[in-house]
Amino acid sequence: MASCKVVQKRNKVTEVTIAGELDIYCAMEFYQQHIKPLKIQQSLTLKLAKLSDIDTAGVQILIMLIKAAKQQQSPYQIDSISSALAQYSKTFQLERYFDPTPLEEAK
């Protein structure tokens, strides 16, 4: 199962680091344990460089996290992504979600 580390920084940034395997076998438990209770401060930074494996269920969890930031009108940025996520993102044309970018204003 994937691990999740959440750091609430003094500058009002919620930094979320996700590592390991995020797939259908752990997606629901991961969502319930880490994503659902998450409180985003003024902005969100995602660090995804240590994701070793991901499938459609894992990608859905990440997109739900991004949408949660947008719903809270919090800008977000993808700090880094793993090669597994980059490959999945390219294959299914999801670069708009997972391209490492500067803070994106919620729309």
Keywords:
107 residues; alpha/beta; 4-stranded mixed sheet; 4 strands; 36% helix; 32% strand; STAS_dom_sf
Give me a quick take on this structure.
With 107 residues, the chain is α/β, with parallel strands linked by helices. It has helices spanning 27-35, 56-71, 83-91, 95-98; strands at 3-8, 13-22, 43-54, 76-81.
Mean pLDDT: 90
Radius of gyration, Cα only, in angstroms? Answer: 13 Å
SSE order in H/E notation?
A: EEHEHEHH
Q: How far is the N terminus from the C terminus? A: 32 Å
**What's the overall geometry?**
globular
The main sheet orders its strands as 1-2-3-4
Report the CATH topology name: Transcription Regulator spoIIAA
CATH class: Alpha Beta
Summarize the amount of helix as a percent range.
25-40%
The tally of beta strands, per DSSP, is 4
Strand content: 25-35%
